[in-house]
Every structure is written in C-alpha cells, then in structure tokens.
Amino acid sequence: SPTGQVIVSYEYANGMYREDKSMDDYNPATKLTKDEVLGLPIVVICNEYTASAGEIFTAAVRDYRNAGLLSATIVGTVTYKKGIMQSTYNYGDGSSVTLTTAYYNPPSGVNYHGTGVSPDVEVENTQTEDLQYNQAIIELNKLINANNN
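RE: above sequence
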C-alpha cells in the first residue's frame, strides 16, 4: 500500500541499521543513532520512476543536505513530480471520485508537485550500462574523501 511505503521511508529516515560481518563471526544488526546516520555520506539514485516514498525520501535528503545536516549527493534524473496524495471514494451506485487529500511537504516546506526533485548530478542510463550506479560510486567516493579531509 502507498501508506506502508511512506511509513518505511519515515522509519528509514529516522534510523538505519548496520550489520557487522566477518568470516569468523556474525553480529546482529544494530540500529544507528540519529547522529551516526547524519554522519554517513549518502548517495541517492533517482529517476522518473522515483515516486511516493522514494520521492519524499529524495526530497528530504536534498533538504537536509542543503541545511548542512547531511553529506549527500543525488544522482540520476528528475523524479516522478507528484507531490500530492490522492484518495478515491467509491459509492454504492458504482461511481467514484478521486480527490487530492494531502500535499507532501519536505523539510524545506517547498512542495515538488509538478517539478519533481532534480538530481545534483544528472545522468541517464543506457540500454546496456547502469551509468547512474557507476556515477553514484564516483560521487560516494568523493563524499568519503571530503569527509576524511
């Protein structure tokens, strides 16, 4: 359900999990604190199919980065451009009506409906290569190097 996807995005944004593994030992996943999450370099890959919770998450990462709270880069193409939520109401006579019932407002308060979320580094995939993934690795290495200096 769309609501479930939004809840997953919210939970992900409020705490990520880390698993520490080695050849000899396995430690169960531990939840990272908010400060640990904010200290991680993040690269988000998006495209025209990044919608719903993915678009909300991408906008939130952009806004937290712009506020200086995250070290992040967005790679890909403009997202789906739907910053609203709609509800459909069905009636006993077989008719229905779909109404806009909510606007998604990311942390900046600027809704992206009709414009989408633009990437920092615009890259289109080809039929044979995942250029967005390749660029995401490059951008992640840049963020890691910048954080280590």
